[in-house]
Amino acid sequence: MAIPMEEDQNEWDQINARNWKGIGLTDPIKSVEDKWLLLPAFLKVKGLVKQHIDSFNYFVEQDIKNIVKANNKVTSDVDPRFWLKYTDINVGFPDRNEMSSIDKKVTPNECRLRDITYAAPIMVTIQYTRGRSIVQRNVNIGRLPIMLRSSKCVLTGRSEAELARMIECPLDPGGYFVVKGTEKVILVQEQLSKNRIIVETDTVKGIVQASCTSSTHGGLKSKTYVATKKGKIYLRHNCVHEDIPIAIALKALGIQSDKEILLLTAGNTEAYKSAFSASLEEAAKLGVFTRHQALEYIGSRVKINRRVMGPRRPAWEEALEALATIVLAHVPVNALDFRSKAIFVATMTRRVLMAMEDEKMVDDRDYVGNKRLELAGQLLALLFEDLFKTYNTNLKSAIDKVLKKPSRTSEFDAFNTMQFQGDHLTSGFVRAISTGNWSLKRFKMERAGVTHVLSRLSFISALGMMTRISSQFEKTRKVSGPRALQPSQWGVLCPSDTPEGEACGLVKNLALMTHITTDVDEEPIIRLAFMLGVEGTSIGNLTTPKRLIAPFLDISLATGTEIYGPHTFVVNVNGTIIGLTRYPTRFVAQFRKLRRARRMSEFVSIYINNHHHAVHIASDGGRICRPTIIVEDGRPKVTSEHIALLKKGTVTFDDFLRRGLVEYLDVNEENDTYIALYESDIVPATTHLEIEPFTLLGAVAGLIPYPHHNQSPRNTYQCAMGKQAIGAIAYNQLNRIDTLLYLLVYPQQPMVKTKTIELIGYDRLPAGQNATVAVMSFSGYDIEDALILNKASLDRGYGRCQVLRKNVTLIRKYPNGTFDRLADAPLDENGQVAKKYDIIQMDGLAGVGERVDPGDIYINKQSPTNATDNTFTGQAASVPYKNTPMTYKSPVAGNIDKVMISDTENDQTLIKVLIRQTRRPELGDKFSSRHGQKGVCGLIVNQEDMPFNDRGINPGGCFRICTIKTRSADVESGTDTIMNPHGFPSRMTVGKMIELLAGKAGVLSGNLQYGTAFGGSKVGGTSAPIGRRLTDVLGRGHESDIDRERLQLCRQRYVDEWYHRRASGGLRLFWADLLPSE
């Protein structure tokens, strides 16, 4: 990170002094030039894939240690003197898991090629008893798959030259795993927030309920409801088989006085009192007046499977245990003091009463502030905790089994036992990531489809998958609520990038500047809150150590009168009530001032909820936040001088955070702010300014030029089709051997770019080509969005692509000692090599570059006839073999591109053959522009039959497929594609028409144009360079009389997609339907 030097520091301070002194509120606000440069500075430290990496780093550096610390001891039931303790755990760097390797270092590229897992050893430091001594050892307990570009990856911190030597692409974002040679990504999972009260209503049944899903550090999760039923309020939990009247539940929690219960729930509001009176009377009718009676009532209804095995305990003990450890488990109970938990239940009850009186008090489940996103780190932490506990259980059983033996020749050493247990963790991680099934019985978690194979159809398809959010909502349910576009998604979720069909609105994508938080320790935050004036029942000495160490005691003595006072606000930290404040505005302002001074994590949020009279502080992980510029006294704190320092490289984005110029806002805190879109929109009440408006779109939607001029569904269609575009996938694409790879022969960066294209590197790994498009009607073959292509352009490489397909075989070694082998091409009775063996060389493999036709053999492999026969004598020649060759089955001929021979971790010989097919566009192939308008090739026309311009130049004759910046007038006369103008009116893609003009202007002026959303090159300025050459007069070469037609001949970006038509199968005539009618 760049740290400002002393002279730079003085320059920074001079800028601040010059900008903040002597400025009046009525003075005009200067626009900050190039403030969008904060965006690339942000993407260097956060955003896009960085949240996956941050989450994984937090797991390997913090979570994994906390889990081991919570499960750090293994004891024996046989020998009480034996114990084993974990004192530390560390994850190493990736290496080869092979005994024969001298150099253990491994790169991701080697793992992809050899079909092995990119994983690192998990080392624990243990202390255990051996006889009468205590021994300390380091033990390898398994291997953890490592996320690429994380802190444990060998690629982290490498220069482009070093990455090139490792055969890795510098533009590859990382954030995925390589498991058994396959790239796997853990999708972001959307969940409801934990430890928060959510109030819902069912208008059909007339039910109002408040729910809270408790989640503790021990992994325990449970859901508690406070709901209405027949005009009364009940507590509902799955640990009891019957709803508990709320008054009885509160009595069991220690609130025995009816008056105190009424004050804690209804306060002094008459409407709430009358609504709650029936619930209060129910306890009296059931004869429950004391705490013991309430505990007996609840204990008799606790489910049997919740009880501890052994002698049956009294009902009141069952109730105490259930209330302490299961119901609202996240609220702590100290020394059987349930007061804090009683206040939380009373708060839930009050929220129900408020919703019964005013339906506006009902929460929206789909509000983004009520959601949390689970990343790879959280999911791997759950998986590791489950596997580690099972590992300890198995270890304990193995130790007990050995200690039970009456006679042992030597002292028992637990280290030797642990050597045989390591495969459990390794196989558990590999199985979960490979299959995508998170099946954790310990946490009652059954989730499928957590991981997906990383799409390598194009560079943008891989990047788009890394920002995708998967919802747990049933896709088959026809409910509009979760699918609708939420106002709270502004700036954090892309409004355009969502699939069509049943997953519409359920699968979402992150916006460009969105960051997902990781957990921040809440203890220092609670201390700080008390230092800033949060109090309990009275204004006592708030610096008392007891109050700082156990702040929950402050609120435990509060009564309903104090909690629901007219000027009292309840302070919550991560959903748990810690105290009260009577000056919420001052408290929040001081808290934010300290956050901007970096006295705490920049991701801690605080906001006031005036409806509930509460101040909420959040430091938990999974919240969605984004950076904005701070505005004070009607002026943005970031100025042009600050941007100039950023350009010089003197400061980084972290310096803007450290100086309090920029801050992160989560969705809840955004409700407490007033954000301006542009400087001209700033008013005295404005608190923040957007960095750039186009950042509300995601990485995929940001590639569309002029999207704000298009009909909304067109942008959504383009987000789906843009990921299918054929182009370049990575710098190392020719060194990869993927299952299926599509590469465009001549990819080009677009003539009309956007800032997003440059930010994500799409101009360096483009997909598609720039085509000269004539928008006109041409015969009847262009109806229904069909395109007319120039045959001369196709001959010169327009739209040509390569399809590379991987073929794999193993030379196996069998248990009886036999093995597969490769053989030279056999001879027939005439001593000639059969035609199908023509390309086989002496080593039994096809030569690189050889043409392979359907039916040809490219690996001449032979296998033993009986691999299970144990009579093998060790002589390979004596074993009968059968031919098991690999035959080329595609109906289209190809070429052998690569042949790779290696070995796997199991010491099996691995052979991969990459076969290449080169394809050119033909009838029926799919093309698409960058505005969601797709069509197939309807006709391929010779260049002499294509339209020509008034200078008599044949359209295809001077096509410059590789030329982007040129002033040659011949380029504009070459027509590659003809598009029917009827495709514009109904689709309303005005952005496409502007792109046509901008593309032509770019060719004539020699400059690339910009079509960034809510900005970019203006239409008037775009048309100026064209001048009189806005239109061309074309003649139709296929008619005897030249039909002169004035139209626009422009440069248009076309994305070449889906060239892979069916290679085999039945054929039927269907082109007759497209013939023009008489």
Radius of gyration: 35 Å
Amino- and carboxy-terminal Cα gap: 72 Å
| Major sheet characteristics | 6 strands, mixed
Structure summary, number of beta strands: 49
- So what's the CATH class of the domain at 50-191 and 373-465? Alpha Beta
Instruction: Please count the helical segments.
Output: 28
Task: Note the overall shape.
Answer: globular
Question: Which consecutive residue ranges, at least 5 long each, have pLDDT under 50?
Answer: 1-7, 17-26, 537-553, 953-973, 1039-1049, 1056-1063, 1067-1078
CATH architecture of the domain at 50-191 and 373-465: Alpha-Beta Complex
Structural class category:
alpha+beta
CATH topology of the domain at 50-191 and 373-465: Rna Polymerase Beta Subunit, Chain: C,domain 2
The percent range for strand residues is: 15-25%
Helix content: 25-40%
Mean pLDDT: 84
Describe what you observe in this structure.
By secondary structure, the chain is an alpha+beta fold. Among the domains are: 50-191 and 373-465, Rna Polymerase Beta Subunit, Chain: C,domain 2 (Alpha-Beta Complex), CATH 3.90.1100; 197-329, Dna-directed Rna Polymerase Ii 140kd Polypeptide, Chain: B, domain 3, CATH 3.90.1110; 717-797 and 923-1057, Dna-directed Rna Polymerase Ii 140kd Polypeptide, Chain: B, Domain 6; 802-868 and 878-919, RNA polymerase II, Rpb2 subunit, wall domain (OB fold (Dihydrolipoamide Acetyltransferase, E2P)), CATH 2.40.50. The protein is 26% helix and 23% strand. The chain has 28 helices and 49 strands. Strands 19, 24, 25, 26, 27 and 28 form a six-stranded mixed beta sheet that branches. A hairpin with a 2-residue loop joins strand 24 (624-632) and strand 25. The protein is globular and about 100 Å long. Belongs to the RNA polymerase beta chain family.
